[in-house]
């Protein structure tokens, strides 16, 4: 897991973080702002861009984190991608970016279930 604390200091700022993703692997990317005490940014948004600058995925709000986005992304190929962070309403403040490979669910031991 990787975590970065940074800030948006102007209303039109977008912060970009280069990351190396493995092809066909699922990743979870979250930006924690004021909604989850990860910072003071009011309404963060997150996007994933390829090395040519094309937007591949975007998330504003999320069901799990309110105004803070949580994005599930499967890298189509291995290589350098860019995580972009901005604020949907042009506010300024701090945030925490967190990303990691999405782990599959743990298997359930059904031998302990009563039938």
Automatic annotation (TrEMBL):
It comes from the Bacteria. It holds the Pfam family PPC. Residues 25-86 form the Peptidase C-terminal archaeal/bacterial domain. InterPro entries: Peptidase_C_arc/bac (IPR007280). This is PPC domain-containing protein. The lineage of its organism: Bacteria, Bacillati, Cyanobacteriota, Cyanophyceae, Oscillatoriophycideae.
């Amino acid at each position: 897991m990787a975590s970065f604390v940074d800030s948006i200091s102007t209303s039109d700022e977008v912060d970009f973080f280069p990351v190396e993703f493995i092809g066909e692997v699922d990743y979870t990317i979250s930006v924690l702002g004021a909604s989850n005490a990860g910072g003071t940014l009011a309404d963060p948004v997150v996007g994933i861009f390829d090395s040519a600058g094309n937007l591949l995925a975007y998330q504003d709000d999320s069901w799990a984190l309110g105004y803070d986005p949580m994005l599930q992304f499967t890298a189509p190929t291995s290589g350098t991608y860019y995580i972009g962070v901005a604020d949907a309403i042009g506010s300024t403040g701090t945030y925490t970016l967190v990303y990691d490979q999405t782990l599959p669910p743990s298997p359930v031991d059904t031998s302990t279930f009563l039938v």
